[in-house]
Design goal:
There is one protein chain. By secondary structure, this protein is mostly helical. The longest helix has about 30 residues. The protein is globular, with a radius of gyration of 22 Å. The protein has 19 helices and no strands.
Length: about 400
């Protein structure tokens, strides 16, 4: 089924705000399709396959990584976008790029790097994703970065402090930092990617958590969002109660839960759009958030997030791994700051230009771009200690 006709409030590639460096349009692709292709072919995108979602890469071959998570976000986002007559290609591009700036070791690595960078402007993975596509990728002779469209870059920058927004605005007046200063919303496509991200990680973290043995189906009976669809699956397929068919029960409950959330977002967003009646993309930016859950689904989703935070993300085994991961990042930051020549040449050259914030930022860029296993190897090389088997 081809892309449906775009709604008037969807992002139309024919009237994109364009790229920072003007380019001749591609003869066979829209600008958003071109963005998606550049993201898929980037080095940062390939690295996501060895970057942690919750479980470190060496803990199992079937746990989600940042790459598989991004693919799941894109699938969910496109499913909703089609029903809402939004631009599927833009949703896909934003979804595939939204985690390009994530550190090794997931949020543990991000928290450690933020601590290291506290005196040097801080570190935030959404802003780092923008740095990746604007500056750090080196693929083209004419410019740094991937030279993506404004709309894709806007969607990548999900959060931004006022100070960082002011700095972006000074470099690019009226650019991707401006909406944070004006207190405006991004496009509907960007809003959709934010919610698809949440739906995806809630669902796959249940799957990975059960697979790991850290949470059980019995525990999940206390989570209304999941248990409703587990019970519905058992009512239709009673044989799923057999211990040997528990994986099928888990998958069926998650599948039903995902479908229900997708349909809820479509219904709630259609209602919000009918009330706000935006006539174009700029009207969307001036409106309150329009892509949303209904009230009941939002409450159930929050309950699930709280359950996962308590029982999975703060599980003693995960916390033990988190502590070691943060030690790796802190040790790497200290080692490279003291001896920048230990980094790859391009980063070492940048770091040696200055001993203050410029050096720290070059070190942060280098570490943020690492995969889990490269960071682990570098740590062992520089310290002589192995923290992960």
């Amino acid at each position: 089924m081809p892309q449906t006709v775009l709604a008037p409030y969807a992002c139309d590639p024919a009237v994109t705000r364009g790229r920072r460096h003007p380019e001749v349009p591609a003869p066979t692709r829209t600008d958003y399709q071109r963005d998606r292709d550049r993201i898929v072919h980037s080095t940062a995108f390939r690295r996501l396959v060895y970057k942690t979602q919750v479980f470190l890469n060496h803990e199992g071959d079937l746990f989600r990584t940042r790459l598989t998570h991004s693919l799941e976000v894109a699938q969910l986002g496109r499913s909703v976008a089609r029903s809402l007559h939004l631009n599927e290609d833009l949703v896909e591009a934003i979804s595939l790029a939204h985690d390009l700036g994530h550190t090794p070791f997931g949020h543990a690595g991000q928290d450690a790097l933020q601590s290291c960078m506290a005196a040097h402007g801080g570190f935030e993975h959404n802003l780092q994703s923008l740095r990746v596509v604007d500056q750090l990728e080196e693929r083209y002779p004419q410019y740094d970065g991937l030279n993506l469209t404004f709309e894709t870059r806007e969607g990548i920058l999900k959060h931004c402090s006022r100070l960082n927004a002011q700095q972006l605005e000074a470099i690019e007046p009226g650019g991707v930092g401006a909406r944070f200063l004006r207190r405006e919303q991004p496009s509907l496509e960007a809003q959709l990617c934010n919610l698809a991200d949440e739906i995806a990680y809630n669902a796959h973290d249940i799957d990975d958590g059960v697979r790991s043995g850290l949470i059980t189906l019995d525990q999940l009976e206390d989570v209304a969002l999941f248990d409703h669809y587990r019970a519905a699956a058992l009512a239709e397929y009673p044989d799923l109660a057999h211990p040997r068919r528990q994986r099928r029960l888990l998958f069926e409950a998650i599948r039903r839960m995902l479908s229900a959330q997708v349909y809820d977002v479509i219904d709630a967003t259609q209602a919000a759009l009918a009330d706000a009646a935006p006539t174009d993309v700029e009207a969307v930016r001036r409106s309150p958030p329009l892509v949303m859950f209904g009230d009941a689904m939002r409450a159930r989703s929050l309950e699930l997030k709280q359950f996962l935070f308590k029982n999975l993300y703060r599980h003693p085994r995960v916390m033990e791994t988190t502590a070691r991961a943060q030690e790796v990042v802190r040790d790497l930051f200290a080692a490279y700051t003291a001896s920048p020549q230990e980094m790859k040449a391009a980063f070492a050259e940048q770091a040696m230009l200055d001993e203050g914030a410029f050096r720290a930022r070059a070190v942060a860029d280098f570490i943020a771009g690492m995969t889990d296993r490269f960071a682990t190897r570098e740590h062992e090389r520089l310290t002589g200690r192995r923290l992960f088997d």
